[in-house]
Design a protein that fits this description.
Strands 6-7-8-3-9-10 form a 6-stranded mixed beta sheet, with helices on both faces. It has a 4-stranded antiparallel beta sheet with strand order 2-1-4-5, with helices on one face. Strand 7 (about 160-165), helix 6 and strand 8 form a beta-alpha-beta unit. The chain has 10 helices and 10 strands. It folds into 2 domains: about 5-80 and about 160-260, Rossmann fold (3-Layer(aba) Sandwich); about 95-160, no CATH class. Helix 5 (about 145-155) packs parallel to helix 6. Helix content is about 40%, strand content about 25%. The chain is an alpha/beta fold.
Length: about 260
Amino acid sequence: MSELIGLRGVTVLTGGHEAIADVDLSVPEGASTVIMGPSGCGKSTLLKVAAGLMPPDRGAVLLRGEDLDGFSEQRMREFRGTNGFVFQDGALWENKTIFDNLALPLQVHHPDLGPGEIGRRVARMLERGGLSDSPALRPAQLSGGERKIASFLRAAIVEPTIVFLDEPTRSIDYRMAERITAMIRDLKLRGCTILVVTHDARLASGIADRLVVLEAGRVLAEGPFDEVKRSTDERVHSVLARVLGEIASFDTDLLALLDGDRGS
């Protein structure tokens, strides 16, 4: 698979320390790459840098080999119009209805679409996410799981070629997590490139082609999911066990969690 996004020696300084340090990472086009690591290790920062939302202090972020730092304003708008970002807290516009939240990316990135077509597309997305009864509601009127779904639908409505997801199933119930996982799988089947930060073993096992293990802002391991999860490196095993909240033996519990429902 060809590289879609590449990080080369990327470092981000936050509060005088390195949130991520000298990171090299390749995100293959059409693949699902999962980033796992303990809280505070720099996962969300790495995701924002890869998406072009946060410039690195050192290093380069490449899109098909071209440095984002050299992109014109127009080129950057085009890039952002072809990707979607799901923030950990949803980041919905609180003063707008759910309909308006979903309509906004279409209005910004597809100004040629008329109100009727935008309305039809929003209605289809709301039905897909099980929120057909919620277009006139504000985010505060939704449950935490429904807000996560609305945020995902807003990212997916532009039919992105790449989607960035920050803990899309965290702090929501099993039913909502399964609904989001199913929608992510649907994007994967359509050939969308996926880069996701998660603590969710079930989500990782269900979608991951590649696994990146991060600790203290540095990449400990990256590669095919089935290879990295069976790494004999004690540091990698320790980080995965901490992330999954398990005191697990390498041969049994940890692998069982990460094996999940592969292929279903």
